[in-house]
Amino acid sequence: MSTAYEAFQVFEQEATAAIEAARNVADLEQVRILFLGKSKGRLKDLQSELGKATPAERPAIGQAFNDMKLRVTQLFDARVEVLSRPESQPRDFDVTLPGNLPRLGREHPITQTIEEFKEIIGRFGFTVDDGPELEDEYHNFDALNIPKDHPARDPLDNFYLAAAKTANGQPILLRSQTSTVQIRVMERTKPPVRIVSVGRVYRPDEIDRTHHQMFHQMEGLMVGEGVTMATLKSVLKMFAAAYLGEDVEIRFRPSFFPFTEPSVEVDVRWRDGWLELGGAGMVDPQVLENVGYDPETITGFAFGLGIARFCMLRHGIDDIRLFYENDLRFLKQF
Ligand code: DAH
């Protein structure tokens, strides 16, 4: 009979020592499994000692077992409570030191500009639409009234895909302008239309401070009844003022594009001279006809602006290549 009491005592001593030695909640859980675990814990083994007692001994042994069990579980619960407190977690660092800030990425300056453009132009009621970067000849040239022999179609001035054609046999190219989206939107929408489309365009130009072979444009298109050149000038002036500042000076210069008549180039005063921001004009009646609109009742304007130009102006950046080289020393500044 003494063996049962001894066994209880040994158990209590060892369990107590183990509970006190636990340094964290995970340690303590191991102790619990070992000593108090319902299926394999040592307490479970001790219970069998009770079975060996004679009926006369049993009440006292049972009482002793229960008392011991209660002491151990109370000790255990108290230790859980202590070790669960934040201040009891092991501390091998100085909590008063300033933390390490996680290194956050940020949006590319071109992306930032695009987001701001969409926000500004949205105030004038333009919604954002989209078109593919891989285009067929029809949308990049034909529908935009660009003649078959126009130099803009020159294979040396475009990225044609050598090995692919559309199902109806048309050459495919990386679009050279976002004006393609004008056509795609008008083909699927009835007037009035008021959209912008922002995206990449590709031209095999010589790369220098102001030219790259891939760059971003924002195309705008407003078509409906009574849309005039005056509307175009107002929208572009307000847009430029919103992005570059109220004192910005904008100039419209007569120009030529096959898909607009009349056409203008839009310049902004910059340092001692003028910097071209893009092209614009009244959508050519032929283009309206190409998409099934009636040029007798509908007019519209369109514009195409270089995104990087604006960003360069705003931040005083003098080399477009910086945007595309992914040099973190540059990108981190935005
Ligand atoms: N697509 C022309 C370019 O890439 C820019 C442009 C000019 C777009 C006149 C237009 C426009 O929508 O009306 O140079």
Automatic annotation (TrEMBL):
Q: How is the cofactor bound?
A: Binds 2 magnesium ions per tetramer.
The reaction(s) this protein catalyses: tRNA(Phe) + L-phenylalanine + ATP = L-phenylalanyl-tRNA(Phe) + AMP + diphosphate + H(+)
Q: Which domain of life is it from?
A: Bacteria
EC class, as a word, reads ligase
Under Gene3D superfamilies, the record lists: Bira Bifunctional Protein, Domain 2
Q: Give a GO cellular-component term.
A: cytoplasm
Which GO terms are recorded in the biological process aspect for this UniProt protein? phenylalanyl-tRNA aminoacylation
Q: Which UniProt keywords apply?
A: Aminoacyl-tRNA synthetase, ATP-binding, Cytoplasm, Ligase, Magnesium, Metal-binding, Nucleotide-binding, Protein biosynthesis
Complex and partners:
Tetramer of two alpha and two beta subunits.
HAMAP family xref list: Phe_tRNA_synth_alpha1
This chain's protein is named: Phenylalanine--tRNA ligase alpha subunit
